[in-house]
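Submission checklist for the structure archive. All mandatory fields must be present; incomplete records are returned to the submitter.

[x] Identifier: Porin domain-containing protein
[x] Organism: Paraburkholderia steynii
[x] Residue count: 377
[x] Sequence attached
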Amino acid sequence: MKKKIIGAAVLSVFAVGVHAQSSVTLYGLIDTGIVYTNNQGGSSVVQEQSSMLSNEVWGLRGSEDLGGGLRTIFRLENGFNIQNGKTTYAGTMFGRQAFVGLQSDLYGTLTFGRQYDSVVDDLGPIALANNGDGNNLAAHPFDNDNVDDSFYINNSVKYVSPTYRGLQAEALYGFSNAAGGFSNNRAYSFGVTYNVGPINLAAAYLQLNNGSLSGMGAVSNNDFVNFPASRQRVMGVGGNYTIGPASVGLLWTHTLFDNTQPGANSVIAQSFDSLHFDNYEVNVHYAVTPAISLAGAYTFTQGAFDGSTGSGDPKWHQVTLMADYAFSKRTDVYVEGVYQHAYGATGSAFEGAFINGLAQATTGNQVAATVGLRTRF
């Protein structure tokens, strides 16, 4: 009897040891609320909506310790809509992220699959709209710079360096996977961050060639690319500074499109020979108490387009204000208001204001207010 007890104890210790060297975590976030908009297609509307602030997700992430500071890592993440139970990206099981790779304490991280680009990774955390518990309503018009992660990069290999004296670099390449068309629907990006004490600085670049215009290459037709183009380039710099319970962020991004064509998920049904946007954002976060936080942002976006239907210089002013109360580390409630004023493009598809996640207004002004609940697991 004693031998059996001792044997069971040894097996238990061994099992714990094996488990300690690998882990798999199930996680997720649900965000739902009521949204009022003064003008969507000419009418005011009250809606129950999801993901007005944070993307709704569930996923699996894990790692296995291989020894010597080396680990295998993976992530499988699904986006969904709690209002109807549908996946965000049609025809996919893990449409938000799906990758596997190796992570080394000494040499950095190398991953393969469907992943964020460097603009999302490096500039996203500086914007009010970002890739974490962000604020989708606060995205720059049409999320033209992908700071709010409207699309992801398929068939990609990504390298992220170790952090050295606050500096970290990353690079990504998304293959077209097309025979005889190496550069057709491919993507590449790179970025660098510097994070020491209260200072966080970042710069990033992204380029798509024929993104979502052909086949299932680096960007698929399921992704929310508002302006599929023969070439899209995004570049930006920004930073934030933390002062006690407050942080202030500044961000500039510049997006260039060549020869755009409306796609399956385009919200602007107009083609352009050339189109560009400059986005200038300032944002503030302030923790009133550990449970109560306030946030706000102002963005000015200046655009220009040219094509067979004419040319124009649209502009957008957008103000976002938000208050959040955390019941716990997992659950919070929020209230938010967004105002956008669009002008300078009368007679074009950009004439009406268009807050991200909503339908376009018939006038140059649009106001949205939402109250919602988020919970994480």
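[x] Structure attached
Curator remark: Confidence is low (pLDDT under 50) at residues 1-20. The chain has two helices and 18 strands.
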